[in-house]
From TrEMBL:
Protein name per the record: Phage head morphogenesis protein
Organism: Streptococcus pyogenes
GO cellular component assignments: extracellular region
Domain ADP ribosyltransferase span(s) in chain numbering: 367-507
One Pfam family of this chain: Phage_Mu_F
InterPro entries linked to this entry: ADP-ribosyltransferase, Phage_head_morphogenesis_dom
């Protein structure tokens, strides 16, 4: 794929972004119409309730419930039928029936019966609202499923035209539709998210309606409260559908790129992309086999509409050539490294960071020397209980962090380092000049303790030592970038194995050794 052709495909993908934005707007309108329709039905139920009971009786429903619960409803039902028959007889005689046609007791009995019916009507209202809410949940599920199905189909067609997929490849991607659409995203399926949220909404609406009526609120107030809940629900529904839609289409893109032989991809930020998306895109391209939605592939957040594009072989070669370069962590890279290499919990921080240079912890304390000496000379099992906790915690912290770029870090050592290298390589220095041996290639070194280094060589407090070591740390290696900015400290895992690249004597008559973490 030539550069001109690559630009053509990127332009096509950006046009496709506009089409997806139009789909999102259409989905938003449909989701709002769905919520509006069911809201109006519930509003009608409430209005009907008030027209039949609340406006006429003007009696508090809590009192009605109390009085109705004390009724022998069957006896009053019988009396009501008799009074209705009496009224019908009077009408047939051509008379207009009023309360004056009944005794005071008969009027009282009818009022109590109406209150009982009013209380039962509240239960019926709740039931009807609950049924309407279930219809809303079903409607949202159907609308979202259709949106995702259509998104999957459109993306397959788009990728086929973009990458020239064969019929067989298209069939392979299509066959995975259900698995892709129903896959877990951030720990849950989209359908589970709908049911869970709608169950909560149904409970909120039911409780608020009952509470409002019992408190004597009018129908308009209740409808206004429900409208707020429905607007929030519609917004959540739209966010879920659009984000899942993006996930589904990105997965189609990944499958299509894999089918077409791509090994790397670039991120194309959408026109309105946020700083997070732009930053992640800026540090691409990324390897397809390390695809992680939300970390190095879209969507990175709700409503994210960034896209991806595969790199051709020539572009990959350029990237691979560039990726072999190792750079210093400069101030402008710190936000990126803080995100990927500085994660730690409050509890972990209390354990591995020393308070006021106390004899505890590992960072900002000489106690780190004690821990490393034991690890290097005796082993983990010889640590005391407290130091084992510190070591286990630091291991855990390092394991969840990694460097997002190829970097160089620095440390200074005593001549003990040369002794360790010699011993680990069958006493190779005994048979010739050690500098020649360091430069001959094939030597390695394993640090059984932690490797504490500095990303800014000028801040390393051990600069007085005679051996300067430059360590190349490949992208993706586990590291922990500490808060110890005074020393620009970065910690590599204990037991790290290094390949020795070369060595020299610099102008300050220091021995400089270049090492690189071995890629196992």
């Amino acid at each position: 794929m030539t550069t001109r052709k690559s630009k053509y495909w990127r332009d096509r993908i950006k046009k496709e972004m506009d089409a997806k934005e139009a789909d999102d707007i259409s989905l938003e309108q449909s989701m709002k119409q769905l919520h509006d329709y069911h809201f109006r039905n519930i509003e009608k139920e409430i209005e009907s309730f008030y027209q039949r009971y609340a406006d006429k009786e003007k009696i508090d429903l809590s009192e009605a419930r109390k009085r109705a619960s004390e009724l022998d409803i069957s006896a009053y039902q019988k009396k009501a039928k008799e009074l209705i028959a009496k009224a019908e007889k009077l009408r047939k005689e051509g008379r207009t029936v009023t309360k004056a046609d009944f005794t005071h007791q008969e009027n009282a009995d009818m009022a109590i019966y109406n209150l009982a019916m009013k209380t039962n009507a509240l239960e019926l209202l709740r039931l009807n609202i609950d049924l309407e809410m279930q219809e809303l949940a079903n409607g949202e599920h159907k609308l979202t499923k259709k949106f995702l199905d259509e998104g999957y189909r459109k993306e397959v067609e788009f990728q086929a035209g973009l990458l020239g997929l064969s019929v067989a490849s298209q069939a392979n991607v299509k066959n995975l539709a259900d698995a892709v659409i129903n896959a877990n995203f951030k720990g849950a399926k989209w359908s589970d998210n709908i049911w869970d949220r709608q169950d909560k909404l149904r409970s909120i609406i039911s409780q608020s309606v009952q509470s409002a009526i019992l408190k004597g609120k009018n129908g308009l107030t209740i409808a206004r409260d429900i409208r707020r809940e429905f607007d929030v629900s519609a917004s959540y529904a739209k966010r879920l559908a659009i984000t899942e839609h993006a996930r589904v289409q990105m997965e189609v893109g990944r499958l299509s790129m894999a089918e077409n032989g791509f090994a790397m991809f670039d991120i194309l930020p959408e026109p309105k992309a946020c700083d997070v998306c732009k930053d992640i895109a800026k540090h691409g391209p990324y390897h397809l086999d390390k695809w992680r939605i939300g970390e190095n592939s879209p969507p990175f957040h709700p409503y994210c509409r960034c896209a991806v594009v595969g790199l051709d072989k020539k572009q990959e070669e350029k990237v691979n050539d560039k990726s072999e370069k190792f750079e210093n962590i400069t101030p402008n890279l710190m936000p990126l490294f803080s995100k990927f290499a500085s994660k730690i919990t409050d509890l972990q921080r209390k354990i591995v960071y020393s308070a006021d240079l106390a004899d505890t912890g590992y960072i900002r304390t000489p106690h780190a020397f004690d821990i490393n000496n034991t690890l290097r000379n005796k082993g983990y099992n010889y640590l005391n209980v407290d130091d084992k906790l510190i070591t286990d915690t630091l291991d855990s912290v390092i394991s969840i962090n990694s460097t997002p770029k190829n970097i160089k870090v620095y440390r200074f050592d005593d001549f003990e380092l040369l002794g360790s290298i010699n011993e680990q390589n069958n006493n190779i220095f005994d048979s010739g000049n050690f500098m020649d041996k360091l430069n001959q290639g094939g030597l390695s070194y394993t640090n059984d303790g932690y490797t504490s280094a500095s990303y800014d060589v000028k801040k390393n407090v051990m600069g007085y030592r005679p051996i300067k070591t430059e360590i190349k740390v490949p992208k993706g290696s586990h590291v922990y970038l500490t808060d110890n900015e005074e020393e620009s400290e970065i910690i590599l895992p204990r037991g790290t194995k290094y390949d020795i690249i070369n060595a020299k004597i610099n102008e300050y008559e220091e021995i400089e050794i270049t090492m690189e973490i071995r890629k196992e």
